[in-house]
Amino acid sequence: MTSSIIILTCLCLILILIGAFRSPQQLGEGVRTAFAQLLQAFPVVVLTFLLLGLLAVLVPRETVAQWLSENSGIRGILLGTLTGAVAPGGPVVQTIIASLALKWGAGVGCIVAFLTAGALTHALLLPLEAGLLGWRFVAARLACTFFFPPIAGFLAHVLFRSFVR
Q: How far is CA 17 from CA 20, 23, 25, 28, 36, in A?
């Protein structure tokens, strides 16, 4: 986590310097945009951490281990796929959820399937996507991406379980 903070800080400082030399007005606009996005995302992130904190206390870790551990096999990967497809909040929130599930004992394959399904499927946005692009487009997109989350989860389960932990 510390290295991520250092890298992000360095990137921000570099962009601030570039912005200051290029156009102080653009730099100010960029900072205002960043704070507006922070204010928009802040409640979602806080509520996500609250939800996960409550889940950490209320859901027995044995249940997570039973359904999502390395030993859960294809059932866990399919469950990770399903929950990733319907999990709210987008990639930031889903990554926070995945982090907690990994700490609770979920397997790498389940987590990879969860994150991949969240990125590719995002079932909660399907009505919006259909309204803007049409159901035929949605069906074609889902047909092309439907199998990737379980395949990614299975590959992660087979190839990387010894590398994570």
A: 5, 10, 13, 12, 21
Residue showing tokens 């999502």: 68
For the chain, give percent helix, strand, coil, nearest 5: 85, 0, 15
Per-residue tokens: 95: 């990554």
- pLDDT of 101 > 90? The answer is no
- Residue 41: the pLDDT is 79
pTM assigned to the model: 0.73
In angstroms, how far apart are the furthest CA atoms of the chain? 56
Return all residues near 100 (Cβ < 8 A) that are at least 6 apart.
Answer: 52, 55, 56
Residue with tokens 């206390």: 57
- What distances in angstroms separate CA 79 from CA 3, 52, 104, 111, 117, one per listed residue? 32, 18, 16, 10, 11
Mean pLDDT of the chain: 87
* Number of neighbouring beta carbons within 10 Å of residue 47: 12
d(CA 161, CA 105) in angstroms, rounded, equals 12
